[in-house]
Amino acid sequence: MTPEFQKDIYYHMALARAVDDRMWILNRQGRAPVVYSSNGHEAAQVGSAFALNRGEDWIVPYYRDLALVLAYGMTPREVMLHLLGKAEDPNSGGRQMPAHWGLHRLHIMTTGSVVATQDIHAAGLALASKVLKDGRVSVAYFGEGSTSQGEFHEALNFASVHKLPVIFFCENNGYAISVPARKQMAVMDVAARASGYGMPGVIVDGNDPLKVYEVTKLARERALAGDGPTLIEAKTYRFVPHSSDDDDRVYRSREEVAEWKKRDPLVTFEKYLLDNQILSSEELTAMQQKIKDAVNDATDYAEKAALPDPSTLGLYVYHQ
Amino acid sequence: MAVMTYLEAIRETLRQELRRDDRMIIYGEDVGVRGGVFRVTEGLQAEFGEDRVIDSPLAEAAIVGTAIGAAINGLRPVPEIEFADFIFPAINQIVQEAARIRYRSNGDFGVPLVIRAPFGGGVHGALYHSQSVEALFAHVPGLKVVIPGTPYDAKGLLASAIQDEDPVLYFEHKAAYRSLKGEVPDERYLIPIGKADVKRQGNDLSIITYGLMVSYAQRAAETLEKEGISVEILDLRSIRPLDGEAILETAKKTGKVLIVHEDNLTGGIGGEVSALIAEHALFYLDAPIVRLAGPDVPAMPYSPPLEHAFMVTPDKIAEASRNLAKF
């Protein structure tokens, strides 16, 4: 793995955190109605994205995946246009709530709100890849709460029976809004589900982007070789409430959050890069300035952009 | 031109379309080796291989959900739900995913997908093998709901559905599979979705219907003709989109409208059709609109007297027509 590659991973993690922080500020200022955050998940999302053929392989994200879509090539401007419901929002033209990603140009599958529906779509995208032999892998991203849904299990089963080139990537942060994982499932690990469907289940430190990269790369190779799907469970933590309307103090102790913050992937990966002279402090400063500029540009651009015209309400119900 | 059953017309269309378009795949429960529980897909796996005619796991949400993904990644999936009654585990994938993917992505994504499912009763299928589920889906913008009433229409409508860029539910009446026969051209042809068809010209009253009930209405009309009552029959062919123009035209022509469907009365498509007429053709009417439909019980019971009491029959259609003609 080249230094440039590692720096690029870090850049996208830091970009995501900065975009995320800005979204919260806009929300608290009353300029953005609601925010769903990837804060804390950056290593899992960016590390896995970098193991894919970005823009060609299909990703099927969920609402937590801001860092993922940025790493996949969505621009900060596009994210901010989506956040503010502007006409130019390429995800939905201002139709969907924030964090409902979808961008055909980059093979980011459009997503709804009902959890685990996307797991089956990933299997279907992969079914087409198998028939068409297009060399693409599809990756479904989801939280551990959604693994209680039947569609999660149906997707794993379908994909494994047909040996589809798909990866199921669970970002296990321990909470489905307020409900802890121990009330979600009677096993310790989501990865344990894999054996019931005849596929490997891999647990990885979701706060280490390089480890996530490695396991995702192996899963991708396995998929392309025709050996079928892999279930990856990245253990991680979200540092902020579920959304800007949530208050996590009700269900998580401040001590628990502080303990996880010691392993903030952005901090630990930055330290790793600096300690190993992969990244110099000058480069870091320049990178931080570039990110700040990008976030300011995106905010200004999106705030000035036009809202959708009410006359467009009826467009695209059907093909036109 | 050959005489075919309704079932054969569907099978031959699937075969023709599979030959025409390499991107098309069929899958569902039992559709491969067995050729479907009704044998609609018989012989297709042998001709097109296991990659294109796929026996899938027994999970309806997965069947529809994977079809959505496959459609977006370049295939033309035509999955089968074994019985329309079994479609409910997939309803979230149909209503909240397939139907609104184009809308929610502002036109960036589309789902060219045809879901075939046998529906309807009169075959001792009881509560879970007899249902008419079409009205539930007709309520959903983004879907098209097609229900052929003849072998000829079954072919032209299915070819159109497969070619369509949007999700289409294609409901086949299981009692029609082998009971309905008719001439079907060998060559490919398309019947536009959303165009109703006058199956019989008449002057005294109009029967507006679809599916198996088209043939039942025709039998009733033949009886009534001998009694001096001239019946026009409008076959809707699709209930979303509805052909409002054709509905108003026949209502204005005869001034008396009987709407017939096997689906439950309340919330059935008959309500929508009669609202259209009330809004746009009220003063052409010579009698109140009449609806003859399945009763408002949860579904069709098994035991013959109960099943018969539920079913709309040619006799019941004739009786309702007589009363309307007399008004």
**Count of extended strands of chain B:** 14
Radius of gyration of chain B: 19 Å
Count of DSSP-assigned helices of chain B: 13
Query: How many distinct beta strands of chain A?
Result: 7
Q: The CATH topology of chain A, please?
A: Rossmann fold
CATH architecture of chain A: 3-Layer(aba) Sandwich
- Biggest β-sheet description of chain B: 5 strands, mixed
Oligomeric state of this protein:
heterodimer
Count of discrete structural domains of chain B: 2
Strand arrangement within the widest β-sheet of chain B reads 9-11-10-13-14
Overall mean pLDDT of chain B stands at 97
CATH class of the largest domain in chain B: Alpha Beta
CATH superfamily of chain A: Thiamin diphosphate (ThDP)-binding fold, Pyr/PP domains
Task: Describe this protein's structure.
The complex is a heterodimer of chains A (320) and B (327). Chain A has 320 residues and is of the alpha/beta class. Chain A has helices spanning 3-28, 42-49, 66-71, 76-83, 117-132, 150-161, 209-224, 254-261, 265-275, 281-304, and strands at residues 58-60, 138-143, 166-172, 175-176, 179-180, 201-205, 230-235. In chain A, 52% of the residues are buried. The model of chain A has no long low-confidence stretch (mean pLDDT 98). The mean pLDDT of chain B is 97. Chain B folds into 2 domains: 2-184, Rossmann fold; 197-326, 3-Layer(aba) Sandwich (Rossmann fold). Chain B is built from 13 helices and 14 strands. Chain B has helices at residues 6-20, 44-48, 60-72, 91-97, 101-104, 134-138, 151-163, 176-179, 212-226, 244-254, 269-280, 304-310, 314-326, and strands spanning 2-5, 24-28, 53-55, 76-80, 114-119, 144-146, 168-173, 181-184, 197-200, 205-209, 231-235, 238-240, 257-264, 290-294. Helix content of chain B is 38%, strand content 20%. In chain B, 56% of the residues are buried. At the A-B interface, helix 5 and helix 6 of A face helix 3, helix 4 and helix 5 of B.
